[in-house]
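pasting for the record
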Amino acid sequence: MPNIGPIQLPDFPLLLAPMEDVSDPPFRAVCKDHGADLMYTEFISSEGLIRDAIKSRQKLDIFDYEKPVGIQIFGGDEESLSLAAKIVDVTNPDLLDINFGCPVKKVALKGAGAGVLKDIDLMVRLTSAVVKSTSLPVTVKTRLGWDDNTKNIEEVAERLQDVGIKALAIHGRTRTQMYKGQADWELIGKVKNNPRITMPIFGNGDIDSPEKALEYKNKYGIDGIMIGRAAIGYPWIFNEIKHFLKTGKHLPSPTIEDRVAVCKKHLHKSFEWKGPKVGIFEMRRHYTNYLKGLPGIKDYRLKLVTLNTVEEIDAVLDEINIKYAGYQFEKTPIELINYHEKCPI
């Protein structure tokens, strides 16, 4: 089993990727319900934690039902990351993850996230500083390299293992690729099959169907898969993959009743955790994804993104449930959302 320090995971675990503005506690709750084995918070600025920034501190919220769960931090300064690691330690997650993969300009061009891929020595120093500052298992999420000329992930994996990380998740793109083109899993497979590597290696990028999950598991020998964009509006993907890996058969597609029920739970959790104004506003980005594929849904979607109370939104969702009762959703690969300047790493 691909355990991370004392954390016991099932054979071939499925991980929910940390996604900025997405993988908050309400979203993690519905993914946990549907088979995610290990989840992470949104990435948290080490500088923000030290400044006691309200938004950064709120991202530290984790709940017992989520466990095992990791808190992810990012930064480009050893002292700041060390202090942030000590703050995280107090909140008692199961692990601490370092983001060396976020490609967006506001992070990477300030020498954090994927920006650290330009300087492996710095990456090693930053990681070592975090490992020494916490009693938690430390893991890393990163990319293949900065660009096609600097795909240094094999060296990175060895050196980060040497300074004490307990697992590595690799997104199969470079920083310059952002989320465009195909994820390249060949290098992920090389890292996993390197005889020097003893820690778990998790692959990430473009997993949008049970078939692809099985193919990549067999082809690259990775210890588990991290799923990001394909879970947005479709948390069922975790159990669908698990069922297919076990039986070779597909689970039935979630019905409209299933989709509305999960959407409602997500909404109510968002309302409870963020408060009425922010909780309802930030939920608006999710309705399209939950209801994707329904014919003529545009008018309902417009209502959902303009209403301001949970009761009104629930009523529209109930109306959708009745109108589309029995609708058969097509079993097609899940569309991977293009985040542009978001950072689902």
